[in-house]
Write a structure and sequence with these properties.
4-stranded antiparallel beta sheet, 235 residues, elongated, single chain, mainly beta, 13% helix
């Protein structure tokens, strides 16, 4: 996303009579809960779709448009920590770019999230079709493991390395650029070859506590430009 693209986009809005549009670097994060009988997911894009909105989502304002430059597909997990029999919720949800461990059938099925295809349409016009999710699967050299004994305690430094990989390796450029609009019908559909189920795994940390990750949502992370006041009903 260089100065040339920025200037071209501003110029196009000006030609449409939208001289009040402001472009800022921005992010959308939308997600859906994993359901054991569902193989097709449709993601809500707008802030006004409050019935499905969860706390960590970043959605599109009705007045704005969003120009996607890069996109990633993630498995999203809740995290709890247990120490001396006391369990607490760890702040923030974790995004994974792969199935961390495969010690149960439910975790194995989650691999099909990366065997699916995305379609994006705006006002029933398909602008992105058969976008394979495999390109978003990233298995870093440092990975999580399902340790069951304190002698093989999980290394926190390795954990930090593994979780940081997603920011540069799982995002994929969207070219040509694709625009979502707060004033139009945005349909984002993920189709999987099979239904998947939630999965849970636990690791031991070097302070003796157990971290339990419950993968229970599929998330789409989109980065690009937010066009404030760019929706079609704006002057």
């Amino acid at each position: 996303m260089g100065r040339v693209n920025f200037a071209n986009i501003i110029s196009k809005y000006n030609k449409l009579g939208k001289g009040n549009v402001r472009l800022t670097q921005s992010t959308l994060l939308i997600s859906k809960p994993i359901l054991p009988t569902v193989a097709t997911y449709q993601f809500d894009v707008l802030e006004t779709q409050t019935a499905t909105l969860v706390g960590d989502e970043i959605r599109l304002n009705l007045n704005d448009e969003f120009i996607i430059t890069t996109m990633g597909v993630y498995l999203e997990a809740d995290v709890t920590s247990t120490l001396d029999g006391r369990t607490t919720i760890v702040g923030g949800r974790t995004l994974f770019t792969y199935v961390p461990v495969e010690t149960s059938s439910s975790l194995v099925t989650l691999n099909d999230v990366y065997n699916g295809a995305l379609q994006i349409s705006v006002n029933n016009i398909v602008y992105l079709d058969k976008w394979d999710t495999k390109k978003h699967e990233c298995r870093p050299r440092t990975q999580y493991a399902n340790f069951g004994a304190a002698a093989a305690a999980f290394n926190k430094v390795n954990a930090a390395q593994a979780s940081s990989e997603f920011s540069k390796n799982a995002m994929f450029p969207v070219e040509p650029l694709l625009t979502l609009s707060g004033a139009k019908k945005n349909t984002i559909t993920l189709t999987l070859p099979n239904a998947v189920t939630t999965g849970t795994f636990a690791v031991l940390t070097d302070d003796g506590s157990t971290l339990t990750y419950t993968i229970n949502r599929i998330a789409l992370l989109m980065r690009g430009l937010n066009a404030q006041n760019g929706a079609s009903f704006q002057n």
